Amino acid sequence: MGAEESVQSDQEIEEPPPPPEYDQPWRSTPWGKRENLRKDLKGFQVSNPNIKHVRILLAGEVGAGKSSFINSINSAFQGRITGDALVDATSGTTFTKTYRTYYIRGEEHTDILPFVFNDFMGLEAQDSRGAHTEDIVKALQGLLKEGCKLTPSPVSGEDTAYRSDPSLQDQTYCLVYIMAADNVSRMNPDVIKKMKNIRASASELDIPQVVIMTRVDEACPLVNKHLRRVYTSKKIKEKMQECSNLLGVPMNYIFPVKNYHEEIDTDDDTDVLILRALTQIVQTANDKLVRSL
After folding, report:
1. Which of 83, 178, 255, 275 could link 37 by a cystine bridge, Cβ 3.0 to 4.6 Å?
2. What count of other Cβ atoms lies within 10 Å of the Cβ of residue 5?
3. Using CA atoms, how far apart are residues 234 and 41, in angstroms rounded to an integer?
4. pTM exceeding the 0.85 threshold for the entire prediction
5. What gap in Å lies between CA 211 and CA 198, rounded to an integer?
């Protein structure tokens, strides 16, 4: 018996792997309350009576899901899959070539909601490709006209697409970074550097910033099976913390979502995550507008 005990004590006892989930969700989510979220957002009132729509700008790496996020928001309000913002599922280069405002509509299509989104050409590592950071900063200030052609070369003050005297309606009130959960660990350092430069400029302009972390279903098998496990998944929280560490955006301004990309019908849980994130974005943008009064 003594020899057997000695052999057992010498053998390395493997610890069981830690559980992939927390016992309880670490962030509350109004599951099943999609209609309440819709109603509150439809009833949102801009704090400045001279502004019809709060403008929100999206920025991020090529393929992170900027256009898909806009489409997913519209889908959540219209109760069907929409595709107003064009998405390219095959190319590794940016598909957005024009600076354009996207209006969010309700189920009746005639009711335009009081917040709008501007998509932007995706960021790439090479300076000769993708969005130029100077143009994103110009867009934040309202200096780019609707329909401005986006190229890797920055828009100058002499260009016809340059707006020299932007109104309050033209300016951006919240900058939203789109980051893909399944790719955040592999992001090119040069793209991260560009995003940090944009963040520094936006902070100087006192523009609040939010991160939307897309593709949570691709990053975590648990969430892929059941979206309601997004806030019990340790993997998702780790990915959110990575986003925070890379850009310096606090965790309470980072929101994981699943964009519609292969579905032909909308889903209650997908909509709840999207609408909850949108609620925070709109409120954050309105806070900036209040400070500008």
Report:
1. 275
2. 9
3. 30
4. yes
5. 13
